[in-house]
Amino acid sequence: MELAMMPLGYLAQAALAALLLSLTMLNPPLSSPSAAKLLNASSCDGSGNTCIFNMTYGGSTIAANLSQDTFTLANDSVSSYTFGCLQKTTGNSVPPQGLLGLGRGPLSLLSQTQDLYQSTFSYCLPNFRSANFSGSLRLGPVGQPVRIKYTPLLKNPRRPSLYFVNLIGIRVGNKVVDIPPSAIAFNPTTGGGTIIDSGTVFTRLVEPAYVTVRDEFRRRVKVANVTSLGGFDTCYTVPIVAPTITFLFTNMNVTLPQDNLLIHSTAGSITCLAMASAPDNVNSVLNVIANMQQQNHRILFDVPNSRLGVARELCT
Ligand SMILES: *[C@@H]1O[C@H](CO)[C@@H](O)[C@H](O)[C@H]1NC(C)=O
Ligand SMILES: *[C@@H]1O[C@H](CO)[C@@H](O)[C@H](O)[C@H]1NC(C)=O
Ligand SMILES: *[C@@H]1O[C@H](CO)[C@@H](O)[C@H](O)[C@H]1NC(C)=O
Ligand SMILES: *[C@@H]1O[C@H](CO)[C@@H](O)[C@H](O)[C@H]1NC(C)=O
Ligand SMILES: *[C@@H]1O[C@H](CO)[C@@H](O)[C@H](O)[C@H]1NC(C)=O
Ligand SMILES: *[C@@H]1O[C@H](CO)[C@@H](O)[C@H](O)[C@H]1NC(C)=O
Ligand SMILES: *[C@@H]1O[C@H](CO)[C@@H](O)[C@H](O)[C@H]1NC(C)=O
Question: pLDDT value at position 26?
Fold first, then answer.
């Protein structure tokens, strides 16, 4: 089952996972006791018709009514689909259209459609400046690419809803840089490691890993005047030739071309390396390969076979 992606003006927000979907409100919202429990929903009234839950997503918090209805995606129908009907959103990580949960959590789209899609899906995210915006989300094992490179998909008990992979090194140009192994090691105790995430815009690397990559990147660009812009610390006011950056995973290397590495200011006069170090919070141990770095690649999540596939695909 394939869905075309619609333009949402999304890249200002961390919301590439959001797609426009037809949600048919056939019945009044019902609450599901098990979902209510998972979400710590409160104030479910006596009739069970209203349950409100709060949730954080990125920098946003949402208050939503727990709802259940038939969910129609192209030709497929999912009955008793549990979702949150947004009531109030603060922050800008959640776009007004809402979010489609593609993670491994118990209430994600994939978890609720096991029979239909067997926790298998792929997407190709077009360049965020694309006029055509011809990305796609393909749900289910049918029609998935055959020629694709795989790396094992891992599950980290500390962050069970995320898709972990084993990053073993990073190459800048032709040089494998010297990253302290602990910065990228998969760690089920701390929840550290590397995830592939469509809901984050720019790749964040654990600080020592980022600094190593950045320094080698700067060395190869050979333009002395490095400036910063917003959250980016490696920006240039003159045109540059950037080295490629290659993520080395178990059994799979992915080399990113310039389009996946550089972001240009809207005025066009500043070019930045579109990566940063991990935030100084609970996520400081997490490397996140984000959607800017996934553009024009097909990313295949094959959960039953515990593998993640990546193939270059121009969805423009
Ligand atoms: C629900 O509450 C439990 C216990 O306080 C907590 O561990 C869990 O993270 C909460 N779940 C959500 C989705 O907030
Ligand atoms: C959600 O947050 C609001 C505002 O902070 C609070 O008043 C309300 O009690 C919370 N509801 C739940 C179910 O936690
Ligand atoms: C959500 O629940 C509140 C409180 O019961 C209600 O006032 C509101 O209309 C509901 N919103 C939606 C979108 O169903
Ligand atoms: C939906 O079904 C129709 C009729 O069988 C078919 O032509 C169409 O391609 C299907 N759409 C999708 C997205 O599978
Ligand atoms: C957009 O799509 C049309 C038709 O498929 C194609 O001719 C055109 O070259 C595309 N434009 C870009 C910028 O990719
Ligand atoms: C370096 O970049 C800054 C910031 O854009 C600019 O003001 C300055 O003129 C540049 N210096 C040189 C030597 O190019
Ligand atoms: C990935 O690149 C590294 C370093 O260049 C190389 O040693 C390794 O064999 C490559 N692995 C694969 C699966 O191509």
Answer: 31
User: What is the best residue among 222, 225, 233, 236 to mutate for testing ligand 6's pocket, by most ligand atoms within 8 Å of CB?
Assistant: 225
Q: What is the pLDDT of residues 222-240, one digit of tens each?
A: 999 999 999 999 999 999 9
- Report which secondary-structure segment, H or E, holds 10: none
pLDDT category at 21 given cuts 50, 70, 90 is very low
In the chain, the domains with their CATH numbers are 20-99 (no CATH), 149-312 (2.40.70.10)
Contact criterion met (CB below 8 Å) for 48 and 30: yes
Helix (H) or strand (E) segment spanning residue 24: none
Q: Minimal CA–CA distance to 141: which of 118, 161, 114, 163?
A: 118
Give the other-Cβ count within 10 Å of 281's Cβ. Answer: 7
Average model confidence (pLDDT) across the chain: 87
287: exposed, middle or buried (C-beta count within 10 Å: 0-12, 13-18, 19+)? buried
- Name the residue with the closest Cα to ligand 6, atom 8: 225
Does ligand 5 come within 6 angstroms of the Cβ of 131? yes
| Pair of tokens at residue 311 | 């193939």
Ligand 5, from 130, 132, 134, 313: best to mutate by most atoms within 8 Å of Cβ?
A: 132
43 CA: nearest ligand 2 atom: 13
Task: Please write the tens of the pLDDT for every residue from 174-226.
Answer: 999 999 999 999 999 999 999 999 988 999 999 999 999 999 999 999 999 99
DSSP letters for 282-313? TTTTEEEE-HHHHTTEEEEEETTTTEEEEEE-
**Is the minimum distance from the CB of 89 to ligand 7 under 6 angstroms?**
no
Rounded to two decimals, what is the model's pTM? 0.86
- Residues 11 and 7: their CA atoms lie apart, in Å, by 10
CA of 225 relative to ligand 6 center, distance in Å: 6
Is any atom of ligand 7 closer than 6 Å to the C-beta of 171? yes
Nearest CA to ligand 5 atom 7: 132
